[in-house]
Amino acid sequence: MATTKIFSVSVDELASLKYIANPEKTDNGRLIFTQGCSADPEQAHRDFEEIRANGTGRSSVLAQHFIVSFKPGEITPERALQLGQEICEQFLKGEYQYFMTCHIDKEHCHLHCVFNNTNCIDGRTFETHENRRTNKQDRSFQKLMNITDEVCQQHHLSVIEHPEMGKGKNHWEWDMSRQGLSWKAKLKFTIDQVIKVSENFEDFLAKCADFGVLVEYNPDHKIDLKFMLAEQKERNPRAKFTRSRTLGWYYETEQIKGRIAQYMGGMMYVPRIKVRQITPKAEENKFVRDAIDRGNMKVASIAKNIITAYGVEPDQVRGAAMAAFIERAHLVGELNDLNAQIKDLQEKLKVLKKYRKVKHIGEELKALSGREEKKYRKEHGGDIAEYHETCKQVLELYPSGNIPKVENLEKHIASLQKKLSKKNTEYNQADKKSRELSEATRTIEEYLRQEQSRDQQKKRKRNDLE
Questions:
Q1: Count of alpha carbons within 13 Å of 213, Cβ hemisphere only?
Q2: 3-state class of 104 per DSSP?
Q3: What percent of the chain is predicted at pLDDT more than 90?
Q4: Mean confidence (pLDDT) of the chain
Q5: 110-116/213-217 β-pairing
Q6: How far is CA 126 from the centre of its chain?
Q7: Which of 3, 130, 136, 302 has the fewest Cβ atoms nearer than 10 Å?
Q8: How many C-beta atoms surround the C-beta of residue 327 within 10 A?
Q9: Selected residue with higher pLDDT from 33 and 95
Q10: Is the pLDDT of residue 178 over 50?
Q11: pLDDT at position 176
Q12: Domain 3-160 falls in which CATH fold?
């Protein structure tokens, strides 16, 4: 399985070249391959500058840097470098200088390729050639992913079957996601929990911090909403916020507002059990305090019963809820894929049924000649035009001429629909588990947080009295 990332270099091209040429990562420079430039990073930088000096663009981007990561143990560094050359031949078409290396300092080997942003042939920039397109699928990142997948398939390496489920994952993120530990999955899961307990969007922004989510919101900006896990910032002070759009449209501002309104409207089938807050005033009144305590203990007990019913240990509940959330997300992808396949086959079936209906027109016309053919064409002009149009559609769908039988296609669709029904059942179960475990997690954490806060208040009160 190969995963791909690409980004531009605008500040220090030489530093990027030196980093990817690090002898400790490239077996003392053995795993380096270049085209149109030196294998020495400093000289390669000068070679790049020479081409840029004759370029036509005024872009601030100096170079592009892409990374291709492979599954651990699936490929040797030497073979990875060969695959990298094939990818560059198709992606760069011999029109850009590039400096490519294979790093072997991690569990998985991965390719780094820094290529000049200026085209050697016409002096124009890479963005001008590749990214000034209206169609997203024509842009450089999508093109690079498609080429990488094709090359991997040709060499019998695994590829990501549902790239729409992930966006720009590196190998570490993919591996963490496989284990149910991806930071993006964790961030989305946590945001979902905040949404469930928020009364409105402003309340959501305020409560994010309580759940360990840092948030930046500026309604005047085009990219108005960004998130980050607090633990990410702790581990890496230079970590950047993630745009809500990167997490998926479901996490954009308007969608979050709509989801909060949906929860507030009671449209979820899981009851929104709330741990009641004990205010300082309620703490002073023993009757009120005890009543709230009993209610909260009952709520926590219900949550514990839900956890027990799923066979989850109390200290594993958050991980189990997150795993259920990830399983649900995967099933959504599979359902979307099956629906797309069924829709595509139904369109083909419609054309083939029409072809079967008008096929006799072509056969009758072929059997005629001379005056009879001329007369037939005159009397059946509309039918003949429909026949030719249908033949054209069939040829577009099956250019090889290997046209399936209508009955076989119907059986295939029925088989997929049966599979879809089974997946829907799995999805409903995973969705129920995800919702109930996440609700139980939130309830228990809220209960424990309140008890801890009360203990701290009691300690402070005792200290004040002393």
A1: 27
A2: coil
A3: 31
A4: 82
A5: unpaired
A6: 25
A7: 136
A8: 18
A9: 33
A10: no
A11: 47
A12: BirA Bifunctional Protein; domain 2 (3.30.930)
Predicted confidence at residue 88, as pLDDT, reads 94
Cα separation, 166 vs 177, whole angstroms: 10
For residue 365, give the nearest of 388, 333, 348, 342 by alpha carbon: 388
CB atoms within 10 A of CB 84: 24
Amino acid at 453: S
- Lookup: tokens for 40: 């020495």
Ordered by start, the domain boundaries in the chain are 3-160, 182-268, 273-466
| Coil/strand/helix, residue 181 | coil
Contact 454, 278 (CB under 8 A): yes
Let me know if 240 is exposed, middle or buried by CB neighbors in 10 A (0-12, 13-18, 19+). exposed
Q: Which residues contact 133 (CB under 8 A, 6 or more apart)?
A: 139
**Whole-angstrom distance, CA of residue 30 vs CA of residue 417:** 53
84: left (phi over 0), alpha (psi -120 to 50) or beta: alpha
Q: Model's pTM, two decimal places?
A: 0.41
Q: What is the Rg, in whole angstroms, of the alpha carbon atoms belonging to the chain?
A: 30
Q: At 375, which amino acid appears?
A: K
Q: How far is the C-alpha of 143 from the C-alpha of 131, rounded, in Å?
A: 10
Instruction: Say how far apart CA 330 and CA 182 lie, in whole Å.
Output: 13
Q: What's the rounded Cα separation, in Å, for the pair 261 and 198?
A: 9
Q: Are 125 and 119 in contact (CB under 8 A)?
A: yes
Instruction: Tell me the pLDDT band of 57, cut-offs 50, 70 and 90.
Output: low
The residue written with tokens 């559609």 in the block is: 393
SS3 call for 224: coil
* Residues ≥6 apart with Cβ < 8 Å to 31: 77, 78, 81, 101, 102, 103, 104
